[in-house]
């Protein structure tokens, strides 16, 4: 991982082996983003996600990109339950797609969100009520939103106008009961609302 990041022009300022080390390193170095494995010592279960949640609470300005061997919407929900910005959840297999991984890392460091397509797919296949309200096109738009695409990018991918994307997004927000806010981060909240319903 260190070699991959360094080769792509990233500065790796610390590496750690457990949650306590992660929190200490972030407090010392104040990085733009921390890359965290969900499974860390001593039990290799959920220490990483718990450390990531603590990190977000103590250092909300630090981006967190977590990795997991499996697509677990409940873990993503735990991470996204707070301020849903500067957050990423990727499957470890995505590291092999170096360009995508680095793009996601930069997006999270800049305050954006990067959700693995498999996580989004799991969300859409559970039959949860909010998703049942969406049309097929709205599901596709939300899928692309969850992957971090802008309205312009979605319009280009679906070969429709940006205005059409805006209308689909507005409909999604309405069906998810997400009124406008001062920060207006409904794009992220639309995904978070669904992930929260996937919690056990």
Task: Provide structural commentary.
- The chain is globular, with a radius of gyration of 17 Å.
- The chain folds into 2 domains: 114 residues, Rossmann fold (3-Layer(aba) Sandwich); 85 residues, Arc Repressor Mutant, subunit A (Orthogonal Bundle), CATH 1.10.10.
- The relative contact order is 0.11.
- β2, α4 and β3 form a beta-alpha-beta unit.
- It is an alpha/beta fold.
- The protein starts with a helix and ends with a helix.
- It has a 4-stranded parallel β-sheet.
Instruction: Please name the CATH architecture of the largest domain.
Output: 3-Layer(aba) Sandwich
For the largest beta-sheet, the strand count, sense and barrel status come to: 4 strands, parallel
Looking at this structure, what is the CATH superfamily of the largest domain?
A: Response regulator
CATH topology of the largest domain: Rossmann fold
- Form type: globular
Q: Gyration radius, to the nearest Å?
A: 17 Å
SSE arrangement, N to C: HHEHEHEHEHHHHHH
**What is the strand arrangement across the widest sheet?**
1-2-3-4
**What is the CATH class designation of the largest domain?**
Alpha Beta
Q: What's the end-to-end separation, in Å?
A: 32 Å
Number of domains: 2
GO biological process, one term: phosphorelay signal transduction system
Domain HTH luxR-type: 127-198
Protein name: DNA-binding response regulator
Modified residues (4-aspartylphosphate): 37
